[in-house]
TrEMBL record:
<dbReference type="InterPro" id="IPR001005">
    <property type="entry name" value="SANT/Myb"/>
</dbReference>
<dbReference type="InterPro" id="IPR044676">
    <property type="entry name" value="EOBI/EOBII-like_plant"/>
</dbReference>
<feature type="domain" description="HTH myb-type">
    <location>
        <begin position="6"/>
        <end position="58"/>
    </location>
</feature>
<feature type="domain" description="Myb-like">
    <location>
        <begin position="59"/>
        <end position="109"/>
    </location>
</feature>
<dbReference type="InterPro" id="IPR009057">
    <property type="entry name" value="Homeodomain-like_sf"/>
</dbReference>
<dbReference type="InterPro" id="IPR017930">
    <property type="entry name" value="Myb_dom"/>
</dbReference>
<keyword id="KW-0804">Transcription</keyword>
<protein>
    <submittedName>
        <fullName>Uncharacterized protein</fullName>
    </submittedName>
</protein>
<keyword id="KW-0539">Nucleus</keyword>
<keyword id="KW-0238">DNA-binding</keyword>
<keyword id="KW-0677">Repeat</keyword>
<feature type="domain" description="HTH myb-type">
    <location>
        <begin position="59"/>
        <end position="113"/>
    </location>
</feature>
<dbReference type="Pfam" id="PF00249">
    <property type="entry name" value="Myb_DNA-binding"/>
</dbReference>
<keyword id="KW-0805">Transcription regulation</keyword>
<feature type="domain" description="Myb-like">
    <location>
        <begin position="6"/>
        <end position="58"/>
    </location>
</feature>
Length: 240
DNA sequence: AATGGCCCCAACCGCCGTTTC
DNA sequence: AGAAACGGCGGTTGGGGCCAT
């Protein structure tokens, strides 16, 4: 009996056809009742497997591309604060998954942490830090809205484009289509990338003169980071 | 060209808290 | 109220790709 059951369920890498089918049924039925969805869809996968595939790969609100230095710093800080609370950290990085952050930590950041202590300092005080905090908050609000049921994804992207056209000609058009879904880079990513490129190019280096190319120094007690912490209550509904 | 080691990340596993019936 | 189903989370694994030898 169990053997039959196991035989019936596929494992391992997902095929393109399976992905398409999963997307179709999630669109139809929503992101819930994964076991039922798996059964109804005819996918020979467990509900858990379907959920994982959607959450970590197919969900159109996920960001593609490598983590930015800014995101890396946030991961550093939050990990110092919360430890291996990957999903909690992921909620602070819209468009990134817990799995993604966990993998990134294990393969990139852990070594850096092992190589040095957290008490080395990037000093974010001054206008640059303030600007960063502002951008962080702004984009987070945006993503909170994107995840809110009352806004359709497409509609919100339009809104985002319009915002950019009005507010910042240079950030307009940073929309990048993915192959499958016609999705954008997240506003968060685009804005941070844009901001970094437009800001003093050496901001990070300036404030971490003691760091090497391979090591980023972090001040866990940065004032702006504390503000982000205070801001948590307000933005905790990011994914809800 | 072959191969061994390493890195990266998608996918799985097992546990536990929450929801549903 | 309690059992079963479901969903979320953190840890682990396996395989593909890259690179040095």
């Amino acid at each position: 009996m169990d053997c039959k059951k196991e035989e019936a369920l596929r494992r391992g890498p997902w095929l393109e056809e399976e992905d398409k089918r999963l997307v179709k049924f999630v669109t139809l039925l929503g992101e819930r009742r994964w076991d039922s969805l798996a059964r109804v869809s005819g996918l020979k996968r467990s509900g858990k497997s379907c959920r994982l595939r959607w959450m970590n790969y197919l969900n159109p609100s996920l960001k593609c591309g490598p983590l930015s230095q800014e995101e890396e710093i946030i991961i550093f800080q939050l990990h110092a604060l919360w430890g291996n609370k990957w999903s909690k950290i992921a909620r602070r990085l819209p468009g990134r998954t817990d799995n993604q952050i966990k993998n990134y930590w294990r393969t990139h950041l852990r070594k850096k942490v092992e190589a040095q202590n957290y008490d080395k300092i990037i000093d974010w005080r001054g206008n640059k830090g303030e600007e960063l905090l502002h951008k962080y908050k702004e984009t987070e609000i945006m993503w909170t809205r994107m995840k809110t049921r009352e806004y359709g994804f497409d509609e919100t992207v339009k809104e985002y484009k319009q915002r950019n056209m009005e507010n910042d000609k240079e950030t307009n058009g940073v929309i990048c289509e993915t192959e499958r879904f016609g999705v954008t880079n997240s506003p968060y990513e685009n804005r941070i990338i844009d901001w970094i490129s437009k800001s003093d190019a050496n901001l990070l280096e300036d404030h971490s003169s003691s760091s090497t190319d391979n090591n980023i120094n972090i001040n866990v007690g940065s004032w702006w980071f504390q503000e982000i912490m205070d801001f948590e209550e307000f933005s905790c509904s990011l994914w809800s």
